[in-house]
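wait is this the right file?? whatever heres the structure
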């Protein structure tokens, strides 16, 4: 067997041998196929349905089998036995830390949780009803002005410190966007607490000297962060890589990723799921809602995935975390609606045929609501979890000699060579 493709161009009768490596052919090889002086053949793939943009050793997904692994470790084992900061180390450094490495990593991240006071004034300038994702995107982008040396992306030590800063400061910025909406004073980090406990403290602390969160809630939120930590070349990671490919600083690249995550088809889906469940309201309304989805009036949010054509393994773990949270907070009444919706959808021909299963966002919103987060804050939680993944992918990108500035081709469909008539003649 030869690992190549023989392509015959029926326009010219010419044959080409195109090598196959790792189950892919190079688009540049296809570009050699041409008729006389015309441009070479290109590949048209809106939404990158079948185009690999990079080689990556970070996250493995088998969508048909419902498998997700970070650096080779199954998500189920990491969610059960690890912590978010350990998983962050794994994603960024490529292997699990020794005890010393872990302690140093946790120390570094804890040490960098504070932000410059001017960041605080900057955030205070937002309107009272500013969406927290808009505030997060802008304030992460603004960090590039506080760390101008971050533009020196070819220096490994410099890259390392920006990675630590960003993982450390994301909960601070996220929590402040939450307090802003509530008109409450921003709470400074408490570096005696763990990463996730400190985040809860910055969200909910009022007059107490030390905020003491329920450890079961800390564990559940930490697990949710782990589940969101990376997901190979999804829309926001692709945004980080596309913007990062210009060699801009990592704050600007990650802020682009936050913008992509904001959209309802991506991280914004968890907010959309909760609004959908509230709208359905109770189980008796589900059949009418499902009919609307099947008639194409709307989508069943939290269902379907570009890669998973089987149950999303993260959704399975989240269902378990939901039980742990509801033990503390009491059951979210919308859980019954979600469970019935899932049961009906999984048995309905429309969803079965299209291989639409619950994804990570289907149950996460119910947990977040039980933790007293308003829907518009849900995607901020996703962003905090995804930050180590974005940064691991950015580090891989900037060290990958094969990468170039991201610059897709287009098929031009507009007019050509029109004669311009000056305005005074057109408007006469
Ligand atoms: N409800 C109803 N129909 C759906 C849904 C849905 N949630 N998702 C896909 N379909 C249908 C779609 O209409 C199409 O049907 P047809 O073949 O008759 O035209 C078919 O299934 C294939 O859908 P697609 O839009 O071509 O699939 P895609 O891979 O481009 O989209 C998706 C993937 C996640 C954007 C989509 O499934 C969706 O919009 N889901 C709802 C939003 C959501 O939950 N997003 C979170 C994704 S997981 C977390 C994350 O990525 O952030």
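ok assuming it is, sequence goes like this
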């Amino acid at each position: 067997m030869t690992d190549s493709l023989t392509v015959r161009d029926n326009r010219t009768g010419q044959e080409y041998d195109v090598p196959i490596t790792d189950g892919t052919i190079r688009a540049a090889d296809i570009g050699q196929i041409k008729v006389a002086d015309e441009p070479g053949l290109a590949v048209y793939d809106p939404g990158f349905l079948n185009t690999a943009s990079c080689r990556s050793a970070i996250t493995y997904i088998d969508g048909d089998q419902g498998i997700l692994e970070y650096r080779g470790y199954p998500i189920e084992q990491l969610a059960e036995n690890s912590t978010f900061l350990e998983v962050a180390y794994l994603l960024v450094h490529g292997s699990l830390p020794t005890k010393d490495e872990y302690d140093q990593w946790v120390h570094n991240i804890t040490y960098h949780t504070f932000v410059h006071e001017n960041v605080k004034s900057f955030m205070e300038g937002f309107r009272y009803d500013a969406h927290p994702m808009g505030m997060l995107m802008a304030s992460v982008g603004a960090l590039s002005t506080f760390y101008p040396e971050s533009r020196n992306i070819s220096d490994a030590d410099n890259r390392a410190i920006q990675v630590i800063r960003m993982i450390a400061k994301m909960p601070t910025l996220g929590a402040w966007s939450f307090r802003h909406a509530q008109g409450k004073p921003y709470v400074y980090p408490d570096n005696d607490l763990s990463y996730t406990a400190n985040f809860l403290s910055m969200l909910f602390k009022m007059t107490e000297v030390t905020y003491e969160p329920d450890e079961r809630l800390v564990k559940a939120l930490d697990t949710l962060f782990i589940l969101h930590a990376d997901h190979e070349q999804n829309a926001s990671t692709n945004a980080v890589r596309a913007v990062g490919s210009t060699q801009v600083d990592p704050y600007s690249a990650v802020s682009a990723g936050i913008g992509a995550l904001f959209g309802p088809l991506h991280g914004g889906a968890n907010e959309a799921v909760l609004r959908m469940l509230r709208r359905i309201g109770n189980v008796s309304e589900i059949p009418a809602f499902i009919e609307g989805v099947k008639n194409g009036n709307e989508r069943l949010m939290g269902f379907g995935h570009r890669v998973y054509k089987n149950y999303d393994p993260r959704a399975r773990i989240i269902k378990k975390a939901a039980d742990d949270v509801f033990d503390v907070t009491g059951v979210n009444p919308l859980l019954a609606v979600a469970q019935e919706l899932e049961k009906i959808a999984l048995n309905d021909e429309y969803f079965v045929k299209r291989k639409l299963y619950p994804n990570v966002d289907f149950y996460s919103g119910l947990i977040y609501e039980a933790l007293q987060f308003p829907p518009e804050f849900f995607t901020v939680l996703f962003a905090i979890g995804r930050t180590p993944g974005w940064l691991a992918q950015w580090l891989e990108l900037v060290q990958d000699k094969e990468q170039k500035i991201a610059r897709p081709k287009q098929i031009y469909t507009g007019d050509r060579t029109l004669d311009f008539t000056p305005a005074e003649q057109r408007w006469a």
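The mean pLDDT is 95. so i think its the right one actually
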